[in-house]
Amino acid sequence: MKTRKWLIWFGVLALLALAMWPIREELDKAHITIAFLLVVLGGSAAEGRALGISLAATAFLVFNWVFLPPYNTLVIANPLDWLVLIAFLITGVVAAQLLEKQRRAREEAERRAAEIDRLATLGAETLNAPRAEDALDAIASVIRDAMGVEQCVIATGGAAPSNASTLSIALNVRERVVGTLRLSSSRPFELTPDQRRVLAALSYYAALGLERVRLTDAAAEAESLRRADRLKDALLASVSHDLRTPLTAIKGIANEVWTGGDPSRAMAIEEEADRLNELVDDLLEFSQINAGVVRFVPTINTADEVVGTALERVEAAHGTGRIDAHVANEGAILVGEFDLAHATRALTNLLENALKYSPAASPVVLRVVRHDGRVRFTVEDSGSGVAVGDEEKIFDPFYRGAAASADTRGTGLGLAIARQLVSAQRGTLVYERREKGGSRFVMELPAVTGPVQYL
């Protein structure tokens, strides 16, 4: 490509000489000098000093051979013509040097502008990244592109030894090493001084990115500890109350039976023991879910299976006839992809919660439909509803709400467990206020579209 451009400029010089050759007798030396200088300046501006000087030397010879008598020789008859030729050559060389200097200044300005653009891009991508890890990936990508290497890794730890195909740099923030930036390529590479200057600026962004990741992790850990501390306080408060009540009853009734009281009162001991067992089961399940040890195995199941099993459990404890259930199959079995046991547990908690806070004479309504590619379970009651501002708090562990009286049994874990079980299956559980009073809980799980084959 470079050779072709040189040939073009030498061709321009040759064409200019051929154009002026027929009229060389009428041309003044100044006209020829200006014409050749224009070619020299053009070549210097386009391709640099080397081409400009080469054109000036060639024009010097052509000037002497073609346009100075005796023609077609390098002999100079008039000594003053030496002044013209030397002045032309010096002017051409100086012009080429000046244009080369100007071209280098322009290229340097373009490089600096590119550096500023890279830094601006890096800053914008870093600020717009929603997560600290995304910002760090953006920084690594900009550095990789700016340095022209195949890989850029930013990580914590000390710098490894560098070699021809790997360069490691320690990243510092406030004179403290926070990690390492490693550039690598399958072939040996060497950075130019300009690239090293840019890398020094970009590596500081990388160090700040690592520090942001560290601070984000520290903030997340601190928030996790705060949540754990709040959960611990709520657990202690709830357990101290919910355990003391049945234990007091068990102790009193046992003493009454022991001293000759009605033996049938032993039934109350069993009921209170069941209440304690329910509390322990809820606490164990909640702790297992939070610890991530509960396994979820989504399989193809029908909504009728979930509803049927949940109704059996609830009606065994609360009696029949209080739940009005309807599954809208619309001519086809309503099928979803979820864990049957955990989905049933979540629906059971919703039904028990509705029965607990509804008047005894008011039915609880359960409706199941397909909605936007989801299986929607809606549980409605006619209770006092949820206080304004508590719509999300009711899903917090151990939160009972203003509607819960001292006699209302429960641990405050039912809704919290239900939401976690549903969320783990790519579902949602939300509260909605009913216009006629009461509460509406909407649980949605992924539905199955298309034909379903059962083995």
CATH architecture heading of the largest domain? 2-Layer Sandwich
Strand order of the largest sheet: 5-7-8-10-9
Poorly predicted regions are: none
Shape: elongated
Terminal-residue CA separation: 70 Å
Q: What would you say this structure looks like, in words?
A:
The mean pLDDT is 79. The chain has helices at 2-20, 29-47, 49-67, 79-128, 132-147, 193-258, 266-291, 303-318, 340-357, 414-423; strands at residues 151-155, 166-173, 176-184, 299-302, 323-327, 335-338, 364-371, 374-380, 428-433, 439-446. It has 4 domains: 2-108; 131-219, GAF domain (Beta-Lactamase); 221-291, Orthogonal Bundle (Helix Hairpins), CATH 1.10.287; 299-446, 2-Layer Sandwich (Heat Shock Protein 90). It is elongated and about 150 Å long. The protein is of the alpha+beta class and 455 residues long. It starts with a helix and ends in a 9-residue tail after the last strand. The longest helix has 66 residues, at 193-258. A hairpin with a 2-residue loop joins strand 2 and strand 3 (176-184). It contains 10 helices and 10 strands.
Layout of secondary structure:
Blueprint: H1 2-20, H2 29-47, H3 49-67, H4 79-128, H5 132-147, E1 151-155, E2 166-173, E3 176-184, H6 193-258, H7 266-291, E4 299-302, H8 303-318, E5 323-327, E6 335-338, H9 340-357, E7 364-371, E8 374-380, H10 414-423, E9 428-433, E10 439-446
Parallel strand pairs: 5-7
Antiparallel strand pairs: 1-3, 2-3, 4-6, 7-8, 8-10, 9-10
Helix pairs in contact: 1-2, 1-3, 2-3, 2-4, 3-4, 4-5, 4-6, 5-6, 6-7, 7-10, 8-9, 9-10
